[in-house]
Amino acid sequence: MKTAAARQARLEISIAAVLAGIFLLFIIGNPKVFTRFDIYYSFMSTIPFFGIMALAMTLVVTLGEMDLSFPSVLALSALVFGKVFTLTGNIWLAALVCVLIGLAAGAINALLIVRVGIPSLVATIGTMFFFRGMVNVIAQGKGIALVKAKETLFYSLAVGRIGGVFPAQAAWMLLLGVGFWILLNRHRFGSHILFVGDNMESSRMMGINVERVKTIVFMQMGFFAAFAGILSTLEVTYFWPSQGQGYLLTTLAAVFIGGTSVFGGMGTIFGTFVGAIIIGSLEAGIIAIGLTGFWIQLIYGLIIMVSVSIYAILLKKKS
Amino acid sequence: MTLDRNHYECIVRLENLQLNYGKVEALKNISFEVKNNEIVGLIGDNGAGKSSLIKVITGVEKPTRGKLFVRDKEISFKGHSVKKVHDLGIETVYQTSSLGEKQSLWRNFFVGRQIKNRWGLIDVQKEKTIAQEMLLEKIGFRGVGITVDSPISELSGGERQGVAIGRAMYFDADLIILDEPTVALSLKEVAKVLNFVREIKDSGRSCIYIEHNMYHVYEVCDRFVILDRGEVVNVIEKHEISLNQLNEYLLSLSTKKSV
C-alpha cells in the first residue's frame, strides 16, 4: 500500500487494536467490573477533561510544535472563571471571560513563538511557569467553592448527565472529536496545518500565511484548555490552584499513543481520541484486574513504548 | 483556462528596471520581455542578477524603479505580492520542490487554492478527479504506480517537478517560471522536466527557464537573455546562434570578468 491515506489507516487500525486488546484484558481480568456500565460511566466523566485538550494538542503537534503551558492555562482560566462567577453570579459571563483568558494565553504563546521566534518547547516552558505563577499569586493557595453553579442551565450543558446517565462532557468530547476530524481532514485550514507542519518554506511559497496558521493553532489550544478548565471545575464544583497539573503528560501521551508524529505534517484525530481512552482507562483497569497502584506507571510506560514502536516500524517500512 | 491567451504580444515586459539593495545595484536598468508562447532562457553566472529579476517578477521584491507590464498592460508595484502575481497568471516552480513531502499528491495540487463544496469544506472527490486527470493524462504519469493518493515522498525528483509544473498549468498560468528545476536530478529525470517544458510550449503558455546547463537551455528555449553583473548584456534568438557559439560566447564573458 503506497498511499498516504493507507498509511494513516494502518496507524489508526493499530491503535484501535491496542485499545481492543487492553479492554479484552480488562474484561478477562475482571468480568464483574468490565461488563457493567459503572466503570464506563466513570471513564466518560473523567476522560474528556484531558481528552478535549489532547484533540486540540493534536493540531499543535501536527504543526510540528509543542505546548507545555496548557495545564497552567487551564488553571488560570478556571481561576478567573471561579472569581467572576463568585463576584457576579453570572455563569455565562464567567465562562466568556474564562475562554477569553484562554485565547489571550494562547496569543501570548503565539507572540513568543511566531513574532519573537522562540522555539515553542522553550517558550511554553516559560509560560507554563508564568501562568501557574499567576494562579499561585492570585489564589494565594486557596481554592474556590462553586456549589451554586449546580443550579444553572450552563452546568447541565457542560457536565450534566444526559438522560440522567451519560455525562455531558463525553458528548462534548465526541462532538469536538468529529469537529476536529473535519477541520484537519476536510477543511482548508487543516490542510494548511498539515503543510506548515510538513514544510514551512514551501507553504510560504504556495501563499499560506504561516504566521497566521501558527497563531490560530496556539490560540485554539488556549481556548480548549480554558474549556477543559470549565468542565473539570464544574464537575467537582471546586477550583484548586494546582488544577490541571496531572493532565500534562496524560494529554501528550494520548496524542503520541494515537500516532501523531512529533515531526509534524501528519496527525490523526481518531488516534488521539482512542489514545485518550486508553490513557484514561488504564488506571482504573489496572486496579480492577487486581494489580496495585504501583503498577500503573509501569504499564503506562509499556503501552507508550509499544505503540510508538509500532508506528515507527510502520513508517520505516515505507522509506 | 479561459484567459485570453492569444490577445497580447508580451506576457511580461520590464522597462528600465532598477533594484538596489542599499548601495548595491542588483539590477541595472533592465529591459526584458517574454513574448506570448515563448520560452526564454535566462542565462548568467551566480550573482548575475537572475534571482533578483525573478524575485521582482514573482512579487517577492519591489524594484527601486522601473515598469512592469503583464499582457501589455502596466502593473503598478503598489501592493506587489506573491498572491497578486498568482492572480495575474504567473506561477513559479522553484529548484527546491515547493511541495509537502508527507502529504498526498492531490492535497499538494490544491494547497492554498482548495476547491470547496457547499459546506465550505474541501471537495475531496473533485480535487482528486482533477488531479488525476492532470497528472495521469496531461502530464503522463501513466503506469508508474503513482496515484493521486501517493505521498510526495514516493515520487522521484523529476516527478515532483512534474507535479509543480502541472499545478502551475492547471491554475491557468500563462507564464511559468522555472528556477533551476533540474538541479540535483538524474539524467533520466532531467529528460522528464525538459518534456514538461515542451508541454508548456505546446499548451500555448510562456516560460522563463533558468538553468546552468547550456545543453538543456539551448534545447528547449526560443530565445536567450544573458545577464551579467545586473545588466542584460545580450539577447539572442535561437536561430542566430549554435550551441557551440553560445557556449563560446558565455565563456568569453566569464573570462572577460576575471581579467
Notes on the protein architecture:
Chain A is mostly helical and 319 residues long. Chain A has a single domain (4-318), classed as ABC transporter involved in vitamin B12 uptake, BtuC, CATH 1.10.3470. Chain A has 14 helices and 4 strands. Chain A has helices at residues 4-29, 31-34, 37-62, 70-88, 91-116, 120-139, 153-159, 168-186, 188-198, 200-205, 210-236, 247-258, 269-288, 296-318; strands spanning 144-145, 161-162, 166-167, 238-239. In chain A, strands 1-4 form a two-stranded antiparallel sheet. In chain A, α9 crosses α11. The longest helix of chain A has 27 residues, at 210-236. Chain A is globular and about 55 Å long. Chain B has 8 helices and 10 strands. Chain B starts with 9 loop residues before the first strand and ends with a helix. Chain B has a domain at 10-99 and 174-258: 3-Layer(aba) Sandwich (Rossmann fold), CATH 3.40.50. In chain B, 42% of the residues are buried. A 6-stranded mixed beta sheet of chain B has the order 6-7-8-3-9-10, with helices on both faces. Chain B has a 4-stranded antiparallel beta sheet with strand order 2-1-4-5, covered by helices on one side. With 259 residues, chain B is of the alpha/beta class. The mean pLDDT of chain B is 84. The A-B interface holds A 2-7, 182, 186-188, 191-192, 194-195, 198-199, 201-203, 205-208, 265-266, 318-319 and B 82-83, 86, 92, 94, 96-104, 107, 110-112, 114, 116, 120-122, 124, 145, 147, 149-151, 153-154.
List its salient traits.
heterodimer, A: 319 residues, mainly alpha, ABC transporter involved in vitamin B12 uptake, BtuC, two-stranded antiparallel sheet, 77% helix, globular, B: 259 residues, alpha/beta, four-stranded antiparallel beta sheet
